[in-house]
Queue: 2 jobs
Job 1
Amino acid sequence: MKRLFAPVLMSMASIAAADTIVATGDLGLVVERAEGSLLLVDQSERAAIGRIEGLGDLSHASLVYSPDERFAFVFGRDGGLSKVDIVEQEVVARVMQAGNSIGGAISDDGTLVAVSNYEPGGVRVFDTETLEMVADIPTGSKTIGLVDAPGRRFVFTTWDEGETWIADFSAGDPAITKVVGMGANPYDALITSDGRTYITGLFGQDGLTALDLWDATPEPTPVLPGYGRGQEDLPVYKMPHLEGWAKAAGEFVLPAVGHHQVLWVDATTLEETGRTDTHGQPVFAMARPDGRQVWVNFAHPLNDTIQVIDTVSKEIVHEFKPGPAVLHMEFTPRGHEVWISVRDAGKVMIYDTQTFEKLREVEADSPSGIFFTARAHRTGL
Amino acid sequence: MRSLLVLLLVAGAAHAGGAPDPEALEHLVKQDCGSCHGLTLKGGLGPDIRPEAISHFDAETLSEVVLDGIPGTAMPPWRPLMSEAEAAWIAEYLLTGEHP
């Protein structure tokens, strides 16, 4: 904000200079995975307003925003960590921090950015100003489910060992707490927006595991153990994501693994409250910000479809096919519209979430993740 | 049951004509195998499957891994979605890095 002050002063002499002020609150970035670029988009205009290139291998890339919504920290699959200025539309810093990465998080105070890596397995933490490394936390395992937690903490989980580590940076050097016995092959995790509950999904067994981060010594709590009992596991052609987790009307809505269902869990007791059969293996089950609807997309080969579930009745109220390879959805912060990336159509499609009417198509090159700047103010995003 | 039917319909498109469609299969390898093995196939949650990393497999074994998966791991069976000829094409493509 301070940096915008100078242009404001100058604009007193010239009204035209007001054009140089860029407000970022309704902007977003779309990952164009094939060419390693980011499309800068404007929610209000429903349009692309720029492209930022030179970000390396962006397959499975994700990003987080600085608290002022000016900078994006982009986590590339190739281990690249890039700091992008969306006002100037340029890459301002970039480091190759590992060989193979899976995601990242920014600390609650905006000073640290952490990246979880498959190779070498672990988490590396960087200064958001300079991208200099401030901590290296090897886990000896592929590391997934990295989130930020209040109190300058990061929480992450190991795929091979099934351990969750809590790295507390509140005193400078990280203090690490390890929680063992999270279960077989955790594949992703979420943290609730209050920063209290961390839930990891398991690939190696039916079930999820929760931790109460308000507890001084968090203990693994099984959630829906053996939810697929008596049913044969179906092949999983794409791992679900939990980062776009849904909490609606006091319940979590979570994708099952190897079963074509979403699972409903009471957010307080962690007991099952229902199941909804779905079109295929869910990848994202995302709540509209008001919690009234959950939108679900699916793994290959059923990835041309979206189903919308009403959270009161837990029934599917709408189903449609945006096009080939629906990879991601992002709601506007108040949920009136949703942007959907349709990779093989080369388009981002924008829908009204009340009428389900398509409002606009925006051209994009193999679009995957869509990230609106409002994420800057949400724990865990 | 309904989803199984759709699955078969989708798979049917890949089977059409019987002969493997190189462009469709290359797209599948990059995008869908790439979900776990990375777009460049150098590994992700799944292992590196570039030619040098899998040279100890013969084409037949690799083709069976594609068709039947590896039980106890995240590698799923692709038999419901492709023919044996298509799996053989993919095995050859992975081993050589080029279209057979």
Job 2
Amino acid sequence: MQRYIITTGTVTYAIKGKDILNRKGFKAKTQRIMSGKGSAGCGYAIIVEGDIERATAILRDAGIKILQINQKND
Amino acid sequence: MIYFDNAATTGKKPQNVIKATLTALSEYSANPGRSGHTLSVKTADAIYRIREKAANFFGATGAEKVVFTLNCTHAINCVIKGVLKKGDHVIVSTFEHNAVMRPLKKIGNPYSEAKVSLFDDEETVEEFKRLIKPNTRMIICTGASNVFGKLLPIEKIGKLCAERGILFAVDAAQIAGVIPVNMQKMHIDFLCAAPHKGLYAPMGTGILIAEKYIENTVLEGGTGTNSAQLTQPEYLPERLESGTLNVPGILGIGAGIDFVNSIGLEKIYNYEMNLIRRLYDGLKENRNIKLYTPKPSSYDYAPVLSFNFGDADSVTTAQILSENGVAVRGGLHCAPEAHRYLDTKDTGTVRLSPCAFNTGGEVSAFLKLINGEKFIKKL
């Protein structure tokens, strides 16, 4: 199943988002990331499997600040 | 020792708080929110669980609103210096601690002091209402006087703020863990707490719960995120949490909340107020003792009581009590405005503040000591 990296910036929002997604039946975990060239620098992200549109809608409804969404290439 | 100085910090910490604090040093000794290794992530997760616990305990809208600070004073500074702009008018009460008054003086904003009635909360609310000006931006007041124990009608003042579009900040140093505080129900925008008091957590801990944005920061530095930028992250709690967190203290806060919840806030409060009333009655029998408030009734007072012995200054009385095995605090308690208001600025007061670990036997022993014939000879 396709996995996605949802960058939240802060570890607090990453953990909160992970908890919410897990409660909604997603398989999610937090991970520290480097956001890459031109980004704000290091931060935290939620790694999630499944329907990314539903996942991001859930997170936005819960007030989670999403900075970036990328596909995770394993 | 009989320790009646719990309004300064609870003298006895519960076993689960001690255990959690020590466990932090052995099992969570990694920097949360800084690294991606297992131990750092585990510690960050543990910290987040305590943010959740604190948010639930104080009726906040989310765990991310909970900021861990160095102490309650730091939290209050974050609010006063972070929110107020030049020219904003502020209303405080006559019972404010220097934690509120000194930052307010420092920024130089205009402020008014609302007189707190010891007898009628409606009168107090009317006084706050009377002082509102077109440029009043914030009411900041203590939940209870740290000298005289009088509870302020926080919910009513919060309602007034909500109706008038005024920000409401509460110095909850003497009420957090003592009486129920629900930020949503009480319309509190900023709650500043001293968890080492009523929540029995280790000293050197503070909580700020911010429901509204804090524009200016009083401390800047590393947060583990947005590191390429030379400005603070925009979002709470990291915006206000630069530098390594006090993980042992924060885990202690979590355990302290568990301790209070396990017994029940109301049960602890009623127990402490019974001790206070026994102290009040016992002191009242002594014609040398001056008391400054009516007999403390439940939900009008926090378990804090001030007195003086004859014309002796309060520090001398406290010293003699210390020499006889009783820990109390004398002086102005960092709240000179309260002493001006009740005319005790020259002598200060001796403050008694029991906690859940004090006993009726300790109250009896204290009263026997202070009401005994030998005590007056010591002064």
